[in-house]
């Protein structure tokens, strides 16, 4: 038997690489003759660079950039290829919510400036294509900070967080930022389809997750509206995905970038279909398998490929909140919960790798019958 093991991260407990290794170890403990292909995955959020490095190799470059509240943070970007280089950037490494203690979270102040610094470093290193994975951000500044880091003016207002955008008195000058990325293909990789503004926009949908109360959500949406009206004659703010990562998707569109499905981009880049054709079954997973997982997130993308090649697709997740009927309709053969197998949330969180190995062993026994 040959299985393809392709999980996302288990947020807060295991990286995608660690999860893939735990599943493989558990399966082999029961069925040592099974061939396991480990292909850890990401949808563009946290873990994006690590996953692509594990699959593609390349050179990881570490540098110090500006964090979401202005403090220096260490972030990596990945360079792949020879001659014509492609850079992969994970926005969460520069402006991620995990970088801000819960009591200090304030999307009115948080800036995406560090993402622009990463793009600038990658371009300086020779990258002609820059793919920015969006997700897990602490910011709500429409990508203004990122633009400021690339030379947009007035820098003082653009790099000071979402609230400062309300004080713009005219159209920002983006010419230097556009010149800095001239000739570079920019891609925003995300599976968030929110637009920049309104009830389905960056502020309303994701602001509360970043610490914004109801009043702050209204102020942030008004500030982004001011920014959009000053920068966007082409209605880019209405593009699906423009609201991703607090509007970073919009900022990249202003530079002539495109928005692509993060799952599709990663699956295509690692050659996932080639692995699926030779597998007898596909195993994927994530921390919480819920209704959002069926709306284009990674397990849904993996299941779509598995179904295309007639392969069983199993989901091993920290918690399963999707009914069997909905899962089967999405191409998922069976789902298994780490919380159920461990006996409690506390037990699952205490030893996530060990519990995931044990769950994979249980599934292997079932599938060997």
Automatic annotation (TrEMBL):
Q: By its UniProt entry, which Pfam families does this protein fall under?
A: Gly_kinase
Gene3D superfamilies associated with the record: Glycerate kinase, domain 1, Glycerate kinase, domain 2
Q: Which SUPFAM superfamilies match?
A: Glycerate kinase I (SSF110738)
The entry's protein name is Glycerate kinase
What NCBIfam families does UniProt report for this protein, alphabetically? glycerate kinase
Tagged with keyword Kinase: yes
Family listed? Belongs to the glycerate kinase type-1 family.
Nucleotidyltransferase among keywords:
no
**Keywords from the named record:** Kinase, Transferase
InterPro entries given in the database record: Glyc_kinase_flavodox-like_fold, Glycerate_kinase, Glycerate_kinase_RE-like, Glycerate_kinase_sf
UniProt GO molecular function: kinase activity
């Amino acid at each position: 038997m040959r299985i393809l093991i392709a999980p996302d991260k288990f947020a807060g407990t295991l990286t995608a690489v660690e999860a893939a290794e735990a599943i493989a170890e558990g399966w082999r403990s029961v069925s040592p003759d099974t061939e396991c292909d480990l292909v850890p995955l990401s949808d563009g959020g946290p873990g994006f660079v690590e996953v692509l490095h594990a699959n593609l190799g390349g050179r990881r470059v570490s540098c110090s950039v500006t964090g979401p509240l202005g403090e220096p943070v260490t972030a990596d970007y990945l360079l792949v290829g020879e001659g014509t280089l492609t850079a992969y950037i994970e926005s969460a490494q520069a402006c991620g919510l995990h970088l801000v203690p819960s009591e200090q979270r304030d999307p009115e102040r948080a800036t995406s400036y560090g993402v622009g610094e990463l793009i600038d470093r990658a371009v300086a290193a020779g990258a002609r294509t820059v793919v920015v994975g969006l997700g897990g951000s602490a910011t709500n500044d429409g990508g203004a900070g990122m633009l400021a880091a690339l030379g947009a003016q007035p820098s003082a207002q653009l790099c000071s967080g979402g609230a400062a955008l309300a004080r713009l008195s005219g159209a920002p000058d983006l010419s230097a930022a556009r010149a800095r990325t001239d000739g570079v293909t920019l891609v925003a990789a995300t599976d968030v389809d929110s637009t920049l503004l309104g009830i389905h926009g960056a502020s309303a949908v994701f602001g509360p997750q970043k610490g914004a109360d109801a009043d702050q959500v209204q102020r942030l949406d008004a500030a982004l509206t001011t920014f959009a009206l000053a920068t966007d004659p082409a209605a880019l703010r209405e593009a699906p995905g423009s609201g991703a990562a607090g509007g970073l998707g919009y900022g990249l569109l202003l530079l002539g970038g495109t928005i692509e499905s993060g799952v599709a981009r990663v699956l295509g880049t690692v050659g996932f279909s080639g692995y699926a054709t030779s597998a007898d079954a596909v195993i994927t997973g994530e921390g919480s398998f819920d209704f959002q997982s069926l709306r284009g997130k990674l397990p849904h993308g993996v299941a779509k490929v598995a179904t295309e090649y007639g392969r069983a697709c199993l989901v091993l997740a920290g918690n399963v909140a999707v009914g069997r009927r909905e899962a089967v309709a999405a191409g998922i053969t069976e789902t298994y919960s780490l919380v159920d197998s461990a006996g409690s949330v506390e037990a699952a969180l205490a030893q996530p790798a060990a519990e995931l190995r044990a769950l994979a062993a249980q599934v292997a026994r079932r599938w060997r019958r």
